[in-house]
Design brief:
Elements (H helix, E strand, L loop, with lengths): L3 E9 L2 H11 L9 E10 L9 E12 L2 H6 L3 H10 E16 L21 E9 L4 H16 L4 E8 L5 E8 L2 H10 L1 H13 L2 E16 L7
Antiparallel strand pairs: 1-3, 1-4, 2-3, 2-6, 4-8, 5-7, 5-8, 6-7
Length: about 230
Amino acid sequence: MSTVVDLRVWDVDRVAPAVLRMATGRRHLAGRPGLRFAKLLGTGAGRTFTPRDADPHRWALLTVWDDEASADAGPDPRLTDPWDEAASERLSVRMTPLSSRGRWSGAEPFGASTDEPPDHAGPVAVITRARLRTSRAASFWRAVPPVVGDLAQAPGLRLALGVGEAPVLLQGTFSIWESRRHLVDFAYRTAAHREAVARTEPARWYAEELFARFAVRDVSGTYRGRRP
């Protein structure tokens, strides 16, 4: 069986009902055949990847499935139908894990750490997620702006947004790149990003962290009026 990962993003006009759906929808996350991991997420505009970036009009659902058939059957309609009906814009990205290291809420949602095939061609996506140490959060946020400035201009970047279970201390990113080469160029050849990575361990920013790469298999819908 091949793991399938779906990310759905909804743009809604009304904030209060969206917050209510976030609070009540969590009870529908479990119990679907083949669903191994799921998270309802807030999003950020991707300009600073700090709490002030939070976008109350865009919300997301990440699901991880045992196989294609389970993913096609999808989440509980009692969870997704209200979001679909309320959405003025929707984006859906289907992916297959290439590599993953670290944990999310104590789990390895995309499988145990693996080595990414060096010959993978086509678009790739990246999910990062971290639980910040309260005492280190300010230091982390001070380190972010130079990285974001470089990210906004990175060749091959198709989409970047912040994601997380909460706007404070539970930080994450989702990005899509034209190719693995474009991602590697940014991650390892951009000075600000290299410096941030080098500081991660000595700065002890994270109580828990995860980094995963995916092959992008299908993109449907739009984000901010554009198909990534």
